[in-house]
Amino acid sequence: MTWEFSLPVKIYFGTDKIKELPKIIEEYGFERGVLVCSNTLKKNGVADEIIKNSNGRLVAVFNDIKAGKIHNCFIYWYL
Q1: What is the side-by-side order of every strand in the sheet holding 32-37?
Q2: pTM surpassing 0.90?
Q3: Minimal CA–CA distance to 78: which of 47, 20, 34?
Q4: How many Cβ atoms sit within 10 Å of the Cβ of residue 50?
């Protein structure tokens, strides 16, 4: 059996990238998304800042993640 899988993903990171979220959302035409993050990101306000900068496009936060020492954050978009 042989198969091929390709999942091109663009990852944005760096200082003040959260402020660029509206531009990124508009560029890709995203309508609704869910933020998935660790409890730490919710508690320290980062998740709220991401939600605020989504201009209402992120419709839910799921933060019941046990990330240990790694603090991850993902946004899943409904197309």
Answers
A1: 58-62, 32-37, 73-78
A2: no
A3: 34
A4: 20
